Amino acid sequence: MQGFLNLNKPLDWTSHDCVARVRKLLRLKRVGHAGTLDPKATGVLPIALGKATRLLQYLPGEKAYKATIRLGISTTTDDLEGEVITSQPCPGLNLAAIKTALGEFIGKIEQIPPSYSAIQVEGKRLYDLARKGQIVQAPTRTVEVLQIEVLDWRDGDFPELDIAIACGAGTYIRAIARDLGMVLNTGGTLAALIRTVSSGFNLQDSLTLTELETQLSAQTFQLMAPDAPLQHLPFVSLPSTAAKKWCQGQQVPINLDILGLVRVYEETRFLGIGQLQENIIIPQMVFEPIS
Which residues of 189-200 are buried (b: 16+ CB within 10 A; e: fewer)? Predict the structure, then answer.
């Protein structure tokens, strides 16, 4: 069994919990995931099965979310799970001011990841350090936010804003909530988060764990093909002799005007990932060798 599962992660489950459950349901040891989701977030969690775990590194990085930001509050974790650091009612805040502030978060921006995050500093996860009382600030990173759309606005002492965000890999929505509160001088924290797109997978096509169990029981479950989420990479088909040499780790000549990573096939059979350089294709990951 090798391929991908588009899982809709439930509330209060860690990404690791989901992998463990899928591993048990499918009776499969080799299971991995792309793009960790926090326990309080729900939505798309790409799951790789069998040899497809080797393809996780080649998935596209684009993601999209629906988020609720609560203003007037800041917390230690930049979401409602953390301890409240500041709390100041802001009933006078208006949507026009918020839309203006949101404009600062479009494009390539500098972002400091939350102190409670899975990022490693000197080999240790930030959330592990934070739980021990060692608050370490992660290095600033450049991330890209492609679009922010306001979906809803609820005013009050601690107003809430619903937004849709399309962004690149590595973007922390909790950090956007925190930093929006800083720009508005009110404080801000993430109240809810749903991931609607991740690495080529969409929420509308996802399965809950309950639906997965039902399909497995009815023997109707079907994996996504290993190359299904790799359509962002160009397609290269090799003749049989060249394909066999390529699968054996050899560079083979090819006349194409493109460079970079490509999906490699023998006709319609997916073989793996190659690197196109000047008139040669170099094996990067042989997924399905030719015997």
Answer: bbbbbbbbbbbb
